[in-house]
Amino acid sequence: MPIIASAYKAPFYLFNPHLETVIPSVFRKVPGTYHRERLELPDGDFVDLDWMTEQRDKLVIISHGLEGNSERHYTKGMAVHFFQHGWDSLAWNCRGCSGEVNRLPRFYHHGATEDLAAVIEHAIQKKYSHIVLIGFSMGGSMTLKYLGERIVRKEIKAAVTFSVPCDLGSSATELDKPGNKFYRNRFLKKLEKKIQVKAAQFPNLLSATGFETIATFREFDTRYTAPLHGFNDANDFYTRASCGSYLENIQIPTLLVNAENDPFLPEACYPVELAHNHTHLHLEIPKRGGHVGFSLRSSKINWMEKRAFEFVVQNHQ
């Protein structure tokens, strides 16, 4: 597919990628009420599903970003927008992200598509005939990897992803740079709390002692992500969990939107050459937008909601 020329224009008052990223994250509030369902998983753990439903036959399944949840402005905004336009919405929470700690030592990561697959199968059992997948950042990584690594069920008609670290190793290196210290520290503080809970649950398996010495994502992934999730080390995790190597196998209409000024994403996260020659992958690179930003001036909705719904309407049949 040709690279899509983006129509997105950032508000004038968000004049750098950091403002574009942080302002909506801190200040945007989305009203709306979910109905929660707990989905028991085959390995004895669980994930919590948050629904907006009127028993329609069309469903959007939304996957959040690292240390996000169904209440994040981008997740809930997308759920509300689709629900208001005739779709049921399902925003699922990764293990340990719903407000209650999960049962097993493991939790989640960018390449952990088995839980997304379980959520999709559960939705199909509810007789939805048209399902669309939407993912943000880590959730986008999961979504793209899911689409490229397996035969996708016929009910899934299209997918839209935003701000996706298609190459985890280079993205981790980017986030570990001094200019991204604010984001890195924010994530690590949240992850530290999660590790402390896990260490209390499983004191013979892992320890939170010395966590304060971890200063980079690579260090965190080496000490925790890799061993907890069956990888040899951080490099093995980055190689096997990255969605980039699965993109060529995608067989349904899929939109990947990564802003050119995203502070989290290096060049390897923009698969321009692949998209040029791909039948189903559409790549859109707005000049602005930051990371999961894409605010609209004087609007209650976000451009991501508008763009996702537009793509789905054009491609979900």
Can you offer a commentary on this structure?
- With 317 residues, the protein is of the alpha/beta class.
- It has ten helices and eight strands.
- An eight-stranded mixed β-sheet has the order 1-2-4-3-5-6-7-8, with helices on both faces.
- Helix 7 crosses helix 8.
- It is globular.
- The two termini are 18 Å apart.
- The mean pLDDT is 95.
Helix/strand layout:
Layout: H1 17-27, E1 35-40, E2 46-52, E3 58-63, H2 73-84, E4 88-93, H3 113-125, E5 130-136, H4 138-149, E6 156-162, H5 168-175, H6 181-201, H7 217-228, H8 234-241, E7 254-257, H9 272-276, E8 281-284, H10 303-315
Parallel strand pairs: 3-4, 3-5, 5-6, 6-7, 7-8
Antiparallel strand pairs: 1-2, 2-4
Helix pairs in contact: 2-10, 3-4, 7-8
- Poorly predicted regions are none
- Category by helix and strand content: alpha/beta
**What's the β-strand tally?**
8
The arrangement of helices and strands along the chain is HEEEHEHEHEHHHHEHEH
Strand order of the largest sheet: 1-2-4-3-5-6-7-8
- Per CATH, the class of the largest domain reads Alpha Beta
Helical residues, percent: 25-40%
Shape: globular
Main beta sheet strand tally, sense and closure: 8 strands, mixed
Number of helices: 10
